[in-house]
Amino acid sequence: MSEIIRRDPRREWIARNRLHPDHASVLAEIGGVQVASEWLGPNGVVRKNPRAIGFIGPSGVKRIDRSGLQQGGQATATTTAARESRRTVTIDQPAFLVAVVPDLTGGRLSNHDKDLLGLARRVADADVEQPGAVVAILFGEHKGEGDGELKKQALGEAGIDRVVHLDDELYAGFAPEARLAVLSAVEREMTPRFWLLPDSPLGGADLGRRLALRLGERAATGVWQIEADDEAPLGWQCTARGAAGSLDIQRPLPRVALALAECAEPVDETRHAAEPLSLVDEIPTILSRIEDLGQVAVDPAGVALAEAEFILSGGNGVKQWDAFHHAAKVLGATEGASRVAVDDGFMARDRQVGATGTWVTARVYMAVGISGAIQHLQGIQRCDKVVAINLDPGCDIIKRADLAVIGDSTQILAALVAMVEQQRGGQRDAA
Amino acid sequence: MLDTLLPILIFTALALAVIGAVRRIRLWRQGRPSRVNLLQGLMALPRRYLVDLHHVVGRDKMISNTHVATAGGFVAAAVLMTLVHGLGIAKPLLGGLLLLASTSMFVGSLFVARRRLNPPARLSKGPWMRLPKSLMAFSVGVFLITLPTVGLLPEGLLEGGSSWLLALVLAGVVAWGLGEMFFGMTWGGPMKHAFAGALHLAFHRRAERFSTKKGGTGRSTGLKALNLEDEAAPLGVEKPADFTWNQLLGFDACVQCGRCEAVCPAFAAGQPLNPKKLIQDMVVGFAGGSDAGYTGSPYPGKPVGEHQGAPNTPIVAPVVMKEGKALVDAETLWSCTTCRACVEECPMMIEHVDAIVDMRRHLTLERGKTPNKGAEVLDNLIATDNPGGFDPGSRLNWAADLNLPLMADLKQVDVLLWLGDGAFDMRNQRTLRALVKVLRAAEVDFAALGAEERDSGDVARRLGDEATFQTLAKRNIATLDQYRFLQIVTCDPHSFHVLGNEYGELGGHYQVRHHSTFIAELYEAGRLTFAPWKGGSVTYHDPCYLGRYNGEYEAPRRVLKALGIQVAEMERSGFRSRCCGGGGGAPITDIPGERRIPDMRMNDVQQSGAELVAVGCPQCTAMLEGVVDASAEVRDIAELVADALVERPADDVSGVSRRTVAATTAEEVAL
Amino acid sequence: MQPEQQQKQQKQGIDVTVLVSIGRHPITGRARRAEQDARGLELALAMEAELPGSRINVLHAGSQDVDSEVALRSYLGMATGVGMGLESMTLLEQPDGSDAILPLVEHLAATSPQLVITGARAERGEGSGLLPYALAEHLGWPLVNSLASIEKVENGVVTLLQALPRGQRRRLKVRLPAIISVDEAAPAARQSAFGPARRATFSVSPTASDADSELAQWHLSPARKRPKRLKIIKSASARDRFKAAASKAEGKGGQVLTDVTPEQGAEAIYKLLKEEDVLR
To answer: What residue stretches are annotated with the Electron transfer flavoprotein alpha/beta-subunit N-terminal domain (chain C) (predicted)?
Structure first.
């Protein structure tokens, strides 16, 4: 077919004139089967017919979906392409450095780490003319997704320009003194303008405070918001949680800041270089007064209910308690129970959830065979997501549940256990 | 020969009894001082015994009559015998009376013996099993030796040389009788109850408990305050000697009849508490020794003989000891629901609950050993003024749409509505909404304290935390002092009791009414009209803190009657009502037993055949509703009333405008 | 090591200083014993029970007034036995808003305890949790955070269990003197009893103090609620964003799966668990 686009001014005119009797049919012709809402105008400009787009929503109101997906296949392809293409950014001559020490929990950047890197990017990219570079100091093995280049890409996509990676036995486990020595060396060699660490217990919270004291800085902790402020010494003002989360402290952002999760949006539009760097000087070996003897096996069932983030709770409807305990173990959930299960002697009293037991704050609360007495529902008020497995679709817990599965709890738990075990096995093979 | 022998016997027994009495009194005097008007107490003794005590004993007519015959006979016989045989005033008239008295005693002792043939489990065995024989020995002995005195037998019958043997045998029988009745009375035999019991009645620590000629109410149920100003005073009872002397005396008065054991909900639930054993342990404690001699039912799950104590050693072991135990285990004390069923039943007027709370006070205030959720609840009460740790500002959240009038705005109303901590409980909020609807329908001028209200301190006090109770009480009193109201109405019997009976000692005197009483009054004043009852059969559960603590058994029943409900009474109702298990912080301390108290109560409900159980207490509602697969629905009286409300028929013109206002507000409430 | 020798070692006990602060109830804001500090004291008391002869010194730097005294006494109320060493506490008196670090460092250097236990962060004021680190840096002692329990002390080395997320534990050996900080992972503090709290005494020593001038310049306000992060699907289409928002609204009502096979039900649950990231 010819490449030349032949124009039909009359048709175009009809397409523009929504009062024309042929308007709809012409539009349909242009757009194929559907009524076109978008076509190439006479000057090569895309024209849109706002009235042709949209659909009637469930409440009878017209809704407009601006994603363009309505118009057909090719639009989808472009958006998907756009989604996958990240802008590659390389900062060769950084004006300054922002040092970030991610937790790298389990060898991967945690969500908290990614948020923090997002914050670092905000600080580094504040001045477009003179961007700073984000240098990440990583301790321990970096597992990432895949190998080699892919791993590096994961770091780059999180917003890291430079990487100092120390994968040595010395820094494994609880080694705050050795890690602090590295950070001191980085400070000496690179003198970053900012040090950002996640304020996460057993990660940045500890190391960051040590670093702050070593550097003689009064760190801002629990930072959850920053905004540019020309009057502040370093150009930023921050809002930090104080007094056990009951205060907001607004103060100039100091050199060392420990930020909370969700302090900023993670990087999602750019990909950075994540170039490896190494330290020039030998890091002085220090005689540690803390010796890590390794992790101790702990029964997950022993975790205090009030603090557990994932609770598998059993009630009157649980018939096979062994299977229930097994499921809790496989899922890594803390066990809870309704009052009835406790009274009947299946569970210990300290496992009771509810107004008369423990008030729980779990992220996911899974109620198995619990009908949901009012006291029980009170006790789980502060849970984020409630999953219920119950035979009776009419009981009160179903009304509270975000997800309810009606059926035999033993079978469903067994299926869930099988599924989790299978996934685990798969993951291990891949790793 | 008997003429010489008898005075010797009698006066020896009397002398030994006096020595024993002095020893016993010294044991009691180990306790802390307590101000008692001794003379007044002794003067009041006959009335307390004949009226108040027999009011309790008289609930069992058989035993009551048995006791009248036996005890009356014995007292008369003892006095007359001392006169006739001891002092030799051998007048035929006295002798005849003595014969009568001993006959009466003998008849009584036959009934005592009959009861001992196949004694119920609640009775103690051991020495008590020989008591009927001793009684018979005494009465028969006295009868026989008196026969010659009256002349029914020749004077010389027992004088002759041939009758030596007979005389000796008689003297032996009399000696046995005297030994049990006189010597045993003060040296710790079963007859101790007569001696200690009489003095206990005279020097009772709650003199106000007894009726007076002027017709006093004879009710004293509020706990006594600790003096926290005095830093030297012990905080509660650590060792037996920390009880006041008249409390120790009270323990000694126990007849081990086991009526307390029979009604104790904790005992029935298999929790490690038996009120009778507890009182006997206290006796063991101040006398020193082990509980091995105890012959009644043990604490469920705890064998007898492992515990021992002394007047000045701790009652509850400070740390869990590896070998041997102290007098009482802490869980025994924490099993009590403070339902007062034992006190109500006790024919000796012993105050079990006072003793238990006294010992709990030590555990909480000195040792910080309130079990299970106790510590958390107390911390919450201190920090947030409510046991659940809720934001005190959210006390009125349930009423956000009700536009409740507040005292802070009105300053002066007829009725102050006391919400209680049920205001934080979703179930009880339904009751409160119903009550508000009723009050509005009756056009009552009322207001609530709202966020200014605090926990009444009931739970803190029953858990032994007197300090927190007094802090809460004083702050509540200070709040209430700012406002003017005629009376307080509450749907929480615990608040009702504490506000009405326990704030007085701290300077807060109020006219408090339970909502059932108030609704009954409103109805009787014609301010409420009800639609006829259409539901099934209904029973009523008496809350302990309304019934036994405050004697209000009738008003709730009057309300139910007004609703057209025929109450199908449970076997245990009124003053014998079985506790729901929710009082005294028992759900908080949560001592495991074999059964749950509310389950047993729900069984009672089932046996009454009722489909619905009406209650008047948030605790009872919570406990009874917590029963799985219950056969009956649990509704508060306020809810039943609110459901049955109908607009009153127009009777006068002036009422019309007011009524429409009331009707709209009631509708709003219903929304 | 010979058992007897070990016992002798154990009998010696050590000097422990517990730093306590005045807490703040999260709902009512009333003064109370600080949660973490109380757990620290609990840890010390538990250690004393294991290691008789240990001496516990409770130390607080701050002002003395009615409210704070009640709060401080509630620490001492945790002594529910005779001779637990909580009959009195040391109070380094300084006005509110002063920097507590230097007086504490001086006091600790002078009294030289072998172990200092402190809560991870304060419930009032800045509450940055920097204090334990400042002490460690100034005194040059090792510091271990997030302690779960003290296992044993021998030959000047303490064996500890450190709390890791989700109830996991790590065993550490630390050379004394050391500072350990305690957060919510440590065992809950025992009840504070009224009697011992009332009887306890304070030994007050006034300290030279510098006002915390930096803190005074900051703007403090009650914590605002943090905006809940929406599941933003950036750079993706508006349709996805719309769907994300719509499905969230849908989730409010709760999804009920009836007539599904156990496998389907399990799969739905599995998906939710994955989404919430609770499976590890």
So the answer is: 39-196
Are residues C194 and C246 both part of a single domain?
no
| Contact indicator for C49, C152 with CB cutoff of 8 Å | no
Residue with tokens 């009908």: A371
Residues C76, C33: Cα–Cα separation, whole Å: 10
Of C217, C247, C268, the domain-final residue: C217
Q: Is C17 a residue whose pLDDT tops 80?
A: yes
Q: Does B475 touch chain C (CB under 8 A)?
A: no
Longest CA span, chain C: 75
C33 within a domain of the structure (yes/no): yes
CATH class, A300-430 region: alpha beta
Number of domains chain C is built from: 2
CATH number of A87-277: 3.40.50.620
Domain of residue C176, CATH code: 3.40.50.620
| List of chain B residues whose C-beta atoms are within 8 Å of the C-beta of residue C191 | 364, 368-370, 374-375, 378-379
Q: Answer whether residue C3 is part of any domain.
A: no
Does A67 contact C240 at a Cβ distance shorter than 8 Å? yes
Q: Does A178 touch chain C (CB under 8 A)?
A: no
C166: alpha, beta or left? (left if phi > 0; alpha if psi -120 to 50): left
Q: How many CB atoms lie within 10 A of CB B351?
A: 26
CB of B614 within 8 A of CB of B635?
A: yes
Q: Determine the Cα–Cα distance for residues B301 and C205; give it in Å rounded to an integer.
A: 54
Average pLDDT for chain B? 89
For chain B, the distance separating the N- and C-terminal CA atoms, rounded to the nearest angstrom, is: 94
In one letter, which amino acid is B42? L
Contact C24, A246 (CB under 8 A): yes
Subunits with 3+ Cβ pairs within 8 Å of B are A, C
Q: Where are the beta strands (DSSP E) in B94-232?
A: none
Taking every pair of Cα atoms in chain A, the longest distance, rounded to a whole number of angstroms, is: 89
Chain A: partners with 3+ C-beta pairs within 8 Å: B, C
Share of chain B above pLDDT 70, in %: 93
- pLDDT at residue B368 above 60? yes
Q: Is A305 within 8 Å of A358 (Cβ atoms)? A: yes
**Binary contact (B425, A349; C-beta < 8 A):** no
Residue with tokens 């003689």: A216
Q: Given 3-state DSSP classes, what are the helix, strand and coil percentages for chain C, each rounded to the nearest 5?
A: 35, 25, 35
> By C-alpha distance, which of B142, B156, B147, B62 is closest to B102?
B142
- C196 vs B contacts (CB less than 8 Å): 366, 368
Q: Does C261 lie in the same domain as C147?
A: no
Dump strand ranges (E) for B495-611: 512-514, 529-530, 538-540
Q: What is the ipTM of this complex?
A: 0.84
Which residues partner with A364 through β-bridges?
A: A310, A385
Nearest chain C residue to B368 by CA distance is C193
Q: Dihedral through CA B513, CA B519, CA B524, CA B529, nearest 10?
A: 170
Q: Which pLDDT belongs to residue A3?
A: 63
The 10 Å CB-count burial string (b at 16+, else e) for B520-537 is bbbbeeebbebeebeeee
